[in-house]
């Protein structure tokens, strides 16, 4: 079973912060730890668009009224990838965090729709709405830390 994204975010951020405390000056702040943790989840999310079974599940997740689920999924994957790379570059991290935050908010209705329609992902039900909203809030909090915490 893959590591859930919230666990990955918190684990990578904690590891980055620990490395910053003991050996890597470039990671010596919670701002930097948040950047690295958020980059990890968005890189993983973007990589899912490359796996045919995952991509098909994501295409089914697009609300029925929207056109070309295949292009929407590919486009969001490209944006997630660009944002994750942007998070890793200190000069672009705040702008990347804002863009990823807006993308996360924009994709939330698709997550809610998938849960309400009872979609299965890899044979497992979509994340329930309450849990999904809590996860989205965690991702947005990490992105907010990138924007507002001091470097």
TrEMBL record:
InterPro entries listed in its UniProt record: DoxX
Domain of life where this protein originates: Bacteria
Pfam families linked: DoxX
Keywords on record: Membrane, Transmembrane, Transmembrane helix
Annotated membrane topology: Multi-pass membrane protein
Bilayer-spanning residue ranges: 7-27
Location(s) in or outside the cell: Membrane
Main location: membrane
PANTHER family linked to this entry: DOXX FAMILY MEMBRANE PROTEIN, MEMBRANE PROTEIN-RELATED
Name this polypeptide is given: DoxX family membrane protein
Organism: Promicromonospora alba
Taxonomic classification: Bacteria, Bacillati, Actinomycetota, Actinomycetes, Micrococcales
């Amino acid at each position: 079973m893959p590591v859930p994204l919230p666990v990955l975010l918190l684990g990578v951020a904690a590891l980055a912060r620990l490395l910053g405390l003991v050996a890597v000056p470039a990671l010596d702040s919670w701002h930097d730890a948040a950047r690295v943790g958020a980059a990890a989840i968005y890189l993983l999310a973007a990589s899912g668009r490359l796996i045919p079974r995952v991509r098909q599940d994501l295409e089914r997740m697009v609300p029925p009224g929207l056109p070309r689920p295949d292009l929407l999924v590919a486009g969001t994957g490209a944006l997630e990838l660009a944002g994750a790379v942007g998070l890793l570059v200190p000069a672009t991290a705040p702008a990347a965090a804002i863009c990823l935050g807006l993308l996360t908010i924009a994709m939330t209705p698709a997550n809610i729709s998938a849960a309400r329609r009872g979609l299965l992902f890899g044979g497992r039900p979509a994340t329930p709405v309450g849990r999904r909203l809590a996860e989205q809030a965690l991702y947005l909090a990490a992105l907010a830390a990138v924007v507002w915490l001091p470097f």
